[in-house]
Design brief:
Number of strands: 13
Radius of gyration: 25 Å
Structural class: alpha+beta
Oligomer: single chain
Shape: elongated
Bound molecules: copper (II) ion
Strand content: 25-35%
Helix content: 25-40%
Low-confidence stretches: 252-264
Largest sheet: 6 strands, mixed
Strand order of the largest sheet: 8-5-1-2-3-11
Order of helices and strands: HHHEEEEEEEEEEHEEE
């Protein structure tokens, strides 16, 4: 009953934090799948918990010592029970695994997804650069964060944006809590995923992988805007001179290296 109650309570809505099991409200289409997996796993775990706790209390009560000289029946090798507690967890692991793979394919698998645009996200000690290739007049447009300036990633609402994650130095991790997804940014590896933001607004993002002294400064903001505002933003960056032929993946962000001086070079993304 408790299990059913929980399913009714949690399965129907995602309105309250309680129903989401403390997960933030998903701001993307993909995030809804992640939330579903999170809720499903909690419900399965709680139902299992209720059964286990019930059996524990039942055994405590049923087989309690009734008199001082009583020795309870000594039972061992209960084969059906042993088979049950071997098989059942295996089934549970298979079900969890299956759901995880299914959601992972929905959220991450991009073989079938044609994104509306691609953003090259560069994580570099210790800030982010967001490249919008072929954004304005065939040119790449970018916004680079610095030690003192938190950059903004601008995304059009209701459009699918693919993030191509690049790192010129160490492992970072690109994540926006409101999107319910994050992914490692690895040197020498071309990771990617996509999101489709549902609502306009501001979101916070950060680096989730301890990447050096100023890791905590690797913050960024996400602004989800209308298509017109998105085009306007790109034009604005273009007019301000933040352009290059190709997405840039390193070097030019020298000023991001807090307290360090280095040459301004532009390395093109691989
Ligand atoms: Cu980092």
């Amino acid at each position: 009953m408790l299990g059913i109650g929980l399913i009714v309570l949690t399965g129907c809505g995602t309105d309250s934090e309680f129903e989401r099991f403390a997960m933030p409200e998903p701001a993307t289409v993909e995030g809804e799948h992640t939330l579903g997996l999170w809720q499903g796993a909690w419900i399965a775990a709680l139902v299992t918990g209720v059964v286990v706790w019930g059996l524990i209390f039942y055994a405590i009560w049923k087989f309690r010592r009734r008199s001082d000289d009583e020795i309870p029946v000594q039972t061992r090798y209960n084969l059906p029970l042993e088979i049950f507690y071997t098989i059942f967890p295996i089934i549970m692991v298979i079900v969890f695994f299956d759901h995880t793979i299914r959601v992972q394919n929905l959220v991450l698998n991009d073989e079938d997804v044609v994104p509306d645009q691609t953003v090259y996200v560069v994580g570099q000690q210790w800030q982010w650069t967001f490249n919008y290739p072929e954004a304005v007049e065939g040119k790449n447009v970018y916004e680079a964060g610095t030690g003192s300036n938190i950059p903004t990633l601008v995304l059009p609402v209701d459009q699918t944006t693919r993030f191509e994650l690049r790192s010129p130095d160490v492992i970072h991790d690109f994540g926006v809590p409101g999107f319910l997804i994050k992914m490692d940014v690895m040197p020498g590896q071309e990771n990617h995923f996509q999101v489709t933001p549902k609502t306009e607004g501001w979101y916070d993002g950060k680096c989730y992988e301890l990447c050096g002294v100023y890791h905590s400064r690797m913050l960024f903001r996400v602004h989800v805007v209308s298509e017109a505002e998105y085009a306007e933003y790109l034009r604005q960056q273009y007019d301000a001179g933040f352009t290059s032929d190709e997405p840039i993946c390193g070097g030019t962000f020298a000023e991001t290296q807090v307290g360090l001086e280095s040459e301004e070079t532009k390395e093109v993304c691989q």
